[in-house]
């Protein structure tokens, strides 16, 4: 787990979930998984995205970083994902 971004509005954490190791000499695909947890601090909601959505999120962030964005620019991009956040933030 790696914190990638933290502002007054959002936190983004990259999560890597290692898969089962493949047998030596096996052609089995890599079973590791990963994604991003995005937390909206004001709405107190979060979402975990993986797969194609995570890849799209990462590509958008990488493209945004090419222009040396401000914190507001990054927050605006991350804010596009807030409508997908059905999960209320709960502390354990």
Question: What is this structure, in a nutshell?
Answer:
By secondary structure, the chain is α+β, with helices and mostly antiparallel strands. Helix content is 26%, strand content 32%. It has one domain.
Structural notes for this entry:
The chain is of the alpha+beta class and 92 residues long. It has one domain (2-14, 33-85). The protein is built from two helices and five strands. It has helices at 51-65, 71-79; strands spanning 2-6, 10-17, 33-40, 45-50, 87-88. The protein has a five-stranded antiparallel sheet. The longest helix has 15 residues, at 51-65. The chain is globular.
Please write out the topology.
Layout: E1 2-6, E2 10-17, E3 33-40, E4 45-50, H1 51-65, H2 71-79, E5 87-88
Antiparallel strand pairs: 1-2, 2-3, 3-4, 4-5
- Strand arrangement in the largest pleated sheet: 1-2-3-4-5
Our estimate of the beta-strand percent is: 25-35%
Which whole number gives the mean pLDDT? 86
User: Which shape, going by the Cα principal axes?
Assistant: globular
Q: What is the gyration radius calculated from CA atoms? A: 15 Å
How would you spell out the order of helices and strands? EEEEHHE
Report the count of strand segments: 5
Assembly state here?
A: single chain
């Amino acid at each position: 787990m790696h914190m990638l971004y933290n502002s007054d509005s959002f936190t983004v954490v990259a999560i890597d979930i290692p898969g089962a190791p493949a047998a030596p000499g096996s052609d089995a695909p890599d079973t590791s998984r990963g994604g991003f947890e995005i937390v909206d601090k004001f709405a107190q909601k979060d979402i975990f995205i993986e797969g194609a959505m995570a890849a799209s999120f990462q590509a958008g962030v990488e493209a945004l970083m090419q222009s040396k964005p401000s914190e507001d620019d990054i927050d605006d991009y991350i804010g596009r994902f807030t409508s997908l956040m059905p999960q209320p933030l709960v502390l354990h």
